[in-house]
Each structure stands twice: as C-alpha cells, then as structure tokens.
Amino acid sequence: MKRLSVTFDRTGEDAARFAPAEGRRGRLRTVRRCRDGTVLELCQFEHPVAAAVADALDADAHVRDHAVVDDHTLYVHLRPGARVRSLLDRLGSHRLVLDTPVHFDDEHVTVTLLGPAARISEAASALPEAVRADMRVERLTEYTGEDALHAALTERQRDVLAAAVAAGYYESPRGATVADVADDLGVSPSTVSEHLRKIEARVLPHLLDGI
Q1: pTM of the model
Q2: Do the beta carbons of residue 154 and residue 4 sit within 8 Å?
Q3: How far apart are CA 125 and CA 132, in angstroms?
Q4: For 28, which of 2, 42, 57, 88 is 20 to 30 Å away at the CA?
C-alpha cells in the first residue's frame, strides 16, 4: 500500500477561497461526495474566520448550503469545480482512499491518496492534462499506518524539525535561534523559518484533535 501526497495551486473551487487573508490556512477535516456529484466539506481554519467565510458564501451559486460550527469551523455543501470532480472521479474509478485532513494555505492545497501503487499510477495518468500540469508530487511513500503527525510532514520537514529539536530551538528558554539551525543544516535562515512555519501549521492542528 502506497501513500501519495500531491500539491495543487489554489483555485476558486473550494469554500476556503473566500477566507480573508489571515484565514487562508487550515484543513478540510472531512470531504464526502454525494450521489448527485456535490461535495460535503468540513473546513477548519487556522484563524477564527468561519463567520466571515459563511457570509461570503451567501452569494456563491455553487454553494447549496453552509453552517458555522464554531469560530474556526464551517460546514459546506457545494458543487465542486472541474478539477476537484476529476480527482474524485479517479478516487472512485481506481478504488483509492482520500486521506484526510486535506491541508491548504494561502497558495496551495495538499491532497494525500492511499492505495496500491499500480492504481495510484493509473489514476494519475488518467487525470486530464490540465490537472496533471498543475500537480506537484510531494512524496510517494509506503503506507504503514503511521500516526497522523508523522504522515503530515515531508521527509525534508522531518529533517528540519529534528535539527531544530536537537539544537534546542524548542527548549524553554530557547537554546538556539533559526540562524543556528540553518547553520547546522547548511541552508539559509529564511529557508528554515519557512519550513518551521509549515511544520507548525501542519502539526498543531493534529494536537488539537486530541484535546
């Protein structure tokens, strides 16, 4: 069994597109396709913008229904765009599993699929050219049922996190700076800072699930 994570540029095909600038990061905790082709989503934003997004959705002809769950969470029933429909079609036709949550930020959406290697390859090849052209493979790994925290990070992100922990970056008081971690890895401080920001954005929501 394989796990394939791919990233797409954000487009106007999901409810999160209406989030204000400070809320364009979060995850789709649930994605479910209905028999009529519409999709149910449970969107969880990093910032408390659910009510603002809900107000914006009132004018969207593609949205059938929506409800604010709490400040960070929004339920949406919508008709997806062509790219999302293509992905969901391949999930069904090739009997693959969409691994949730689906992560999104200001510019990208990262989707993870589970299934036999041959089916994943066939499904990717069957996608329309326009969809494949916009798809970037993040990682293809063996799926071993590892915990969600481990699976949420790329191999490079795990390397950066390990270096930061070893250097004492997360100690209190802090035992190292971003520049120290960058020196250990032989990269620029801005690169380490960006990696750590993405790591925290992916890991912290998983910790909240258990609270």
Answers
A1: 0.67
A2: no
A3: 8
A4: 2
